[in-house]
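Repro:
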Amino acid sequence: MILRFFKANNWFYKEKFTFLLSSLLLYTIAEPFFISFLQKKIFINFAFFIILLSAVFAVSSKKTHLIIILIISGLKSLLFCYTLFVSSENLLIMDYVLRIIFNACLIFIIGGYFYKYDNVSRDTISAALICYLLLVRLWSNFYFLIELKFPNSFTIAHETIKASPSILNYFSFVTITTLGYGDISPVSPQARNIATLEAFVGQMYVAILIARLITIHTAQISANKEN
């Protein structure tokens, strides 16, 4: 019923990816500021739940996609409720595995929508940027799992990373954009291989994205001339 209401509002539904992009950006920007004021576990999971709701709305045009996201959302919510009473490394691993699956599904679904668009719009650009941000989150989750299984895989203390996993979001951004500040570096072979792969995927994504946008824009110009 809620989805029908939003679909009835044509402008809001057309800007669904812009809405999801805003949620992701807000989560990324606000997390380090509010982490000291709220209990970390509650804040992170609440913010992630908001993004889940935004994702459900963004992919709601196809029933199959909607069901997939809802299943992952349900599993994530159940796991969160369980971790309020029980804390263990296995639960933490399960949590991050679900995050990886969720991010990978969204990248696949939204990326498919983006490559089906035949015109360049604000929502088109938002969809492309969402996939880029989700790639950062995806690799950040991989890094955290590597650190859990292979402690001291980075030049940051193991306990520091466990206490503040958002550090790896920063490392992931630096890696995918190939800035290379050098304040955090991969040490273990596993971490180095994954970091190399992320840098490669990041550069290829930008190149393919630009090529796709140019192709769409050129087709629009040709169509306008014919009309």
